[in-house]
Every structure is written in structure tokens, then in C-alpha cells.
Amino acid sequence: MIFSVERATSVRASPIWACIAEEDQQLSNEENSYFQDDSPNEEHVRPICDNRSSVSIQTSLPKRHLTLFDLVSICVGGTIGSGIFVLNGLIAHSYAGPAVFLSWIISGFAALLSGCCYAELSGRIPSTGSSYAYAFVALGELPAFLAAGMLSLEFLLSGSAVARSWGDKVVEWARVQLSASDRVIHLLQPGYNVNPMACLVSILATILVTMGIKESKIVTDFFTWIKVSLVLFMTIGGYLLFNADNVTPIIPPEFGVSGVLHGAMSSFFGYLGFDAVCCVAGEAINAERNVPLSIMITLGFVTSLYVSASLALVGMQNYTEISSESGYPVAFHANGVEWASQLTAVCYLL
User: Fold this and answer.
1) For residue 28, pLDDT beyond 50
2) Which residues contact 151 (CB under 8 A, 6 or more apart)?
3) Rounded to an integer, what distance in angstroms lies between the CA atom of residue 92 and that of residue 250?
4) Which three-class secondary structure state does DSSP give residue 57?
């Protein structure tokens, strides 16, 4: 995001920005002693600048809980999901073949450019609000309002897509792995494009968020690193079953370079979510440093996982036989490793 020097100068000279800068300086001076306090229930009171009057307003300073590890967990947990579990099989089978890893590298570079913008802005404006806060400071109220609407729409669409994908996985798992009766399947999938399990997981996630950041971060950290462990298991297992004949040629003639680029466009969806950490910058310890650092660590880590896992998948099974919906369970099953197939099918639900 680039804005004019005149606009930046006028914003920084405004009373609102002066107030924010003064408060940030106060917070910076108090932060070291504040976070070493062993009394979590004690309220810390400090004056807040108010340029509209000469009266000093007293308010309590909120306790910040999120460390760098927590911020990376939020980034990684919000990014890894359907992208690596579903898109790898879809892209390999339909768009790029064994060159699926090239698609992830191309889309990862595009995500890195976006991540650099978020990293710089989150370091300069370390406050809750993400794109809304950045647009407000740089461009004004109307652009900030539009940014807030688009940000809400992004989370609405991506959250509903992930919830629906999870609900479909539950139905597939119940049908294939548990051999559930038709009555149970009808309850899980009643028709009319309704998915009760997607609604259930959305409600549970909303309840978890309303419990507070201190409580929800524990659940986030747990499930994030469970998913990372699963991805590492699938990757290592895939390399143990690797067959070089499955990755020849790298770019199948029927797909070509255009197929790799098409796969890159589809795989970019797998990077959505890393910017969610900017929404909780107000809860982060040393946000000026830790929020930008968590974004860059996440993009490097996630891209490495995506590339490694995609190579493992196309090495296990020929791209023409890879399942577009359950790539890894089907690939393990095709290689006769049934326990690994069962384990990955269950863990897909995470």
C-alpha cells in the first residue's frame, strides 16, 4: 500500500495521530515493567490523551497475552487447512500434474508480496483492526469503511468455505470409514445444500472466540501444531513411498505451463488466513516487532510445508490416479499402508 507524502504528513500532524503516537510512547515506556507484573488481576491505570479537552481521562490498560509463538500459531493455524489437504490432490490431478510444487512456489511468491505489505504496516501501526486501521491512518474514514467491509467479506467467505469443507469431510468419513447407516448420513447431509456439521463447527468457533483471547489461544496452539504434525507425517510417509517414475515428466504435455499457472491461481487460496494475526495485534506483546516477524515466519514455513507435501503426494501415486478430494488417504491406500490411510482420513477432520 503506497500513499502520498502529503497525506502521510497531514495524518501524522493531525490531533488523532498525535494522540495515538503519545499513547504508543507511553505504552512502550511502561511495557517492560507491566509484563513482569505477577498480579494478573490488578488493574493498571494510565492517563489517555484527549485533544478535545484538557481533562486527563483515566482508563485501564488491557493485559496483552500473545507471544511470538502464539502469533505464529494463529498465522499457521489460519493458513494450513483445506489448501494442503484438498488442493494438492485437485491441482495435481486436474491442472499441473507433478509440477504442483511449482504452482505452490509461484503462489507463495505472490503471497509473500502481500505479506510484506502487511508486515510493514503492522510494524508501523501496531493496533487492532488490520486493513481497517491501516486504511484509516493512510487514506481516511471512507476508504477505511470500505476496507472493513471487504475484510469482513473475506473472513465470511473463507470461513464458510472452510466450514463447508470440514462438514463434507465428516460426511465422507462417516460414510467410508465408519460405514454409517443411511439414516445417519441423511442427518449429516439432509439435502437442499444444507450442511449441519458446517453450522456446528462455525457455532463452536464463535463460542470459543467470545471466551477471550487468553482461553482461545490455548486451543489454537493445540490444533495448529497437531495439523503441522500431521502434515509432517504425510510428507515423511510420502517420501518413504516415493517412486521417481511418478514424477516423470515434471510438466505433463496435456497441462503445459498454462496448467501450472492455473494451479498457482487455485493454490493461492491455500495462503489465505495469514493476515488474521493483524486483527489481534492489540493483544500482542511487543506488537511492533512480533507481528511482522510472525507473518514472515509463517509464509516461509507454510510455503516449505506446501512444496514438500505436494512432492510427497505426486511421488507416492501417479497424478492421473490421485484423488481430487482425499489425495493422501487414497495414495496411502494405493500403496498398501492402510493404517496410514485411516490415520490421515481421521486427521483430515482437524
Assistant:
1) no
2) 130, 131, 132
3) 11
4) strand
Angstrom distance (rounded) from CA 221 to CA 69: 9
Q: Are 346 and 337 in contact (CB under 8 A)?
A: no
Give the N- to C-terminal CA distance of the chain in Å, as an integer.
35
Residue 213, C-beta contacts closer than 8 angstroms, at least 6 positions apart? 65, 66, 280, 283
Greater pLDDT, 163 or 212 = 163
- Using CA atoms in the order 10, 15, 16, 17, what is the torsion angle rounded to 10 degrees? 50
Q: Contact, 312 vs 237, CB < 8 A? A: yes
What CA–CA distance (Å, rounded) separates 280 from 313? 35
Helix extents (H) in 60-181? 68-79, 82, 88-91, 100-124, 131-138, 141-176
Distance from C-alpha of 144 to C-alpha of 122, rounded to nearest angstrom:
15
Q: Rounded to an integer, what distance in angstroms lies between the CA atom of residue 279 and that of residue 8?
A: 22
Three-state secondary structure string covering 150-166? HHHHHHHHHHHHHHHHH
pTM reported for the whole predicted model = 0.74
Maximum Cα–Cα distance for the chain, whole Å?
76
Q: Which residue has the higher pLDDT, 219 or 45?
A: 219
Q: Give dist(CA 40, CA 57) in Å, integer.
A: 23
Q: What share of the chain is helix, strand, coil (3-state, %, to 5)?
A: 75, 5, 25
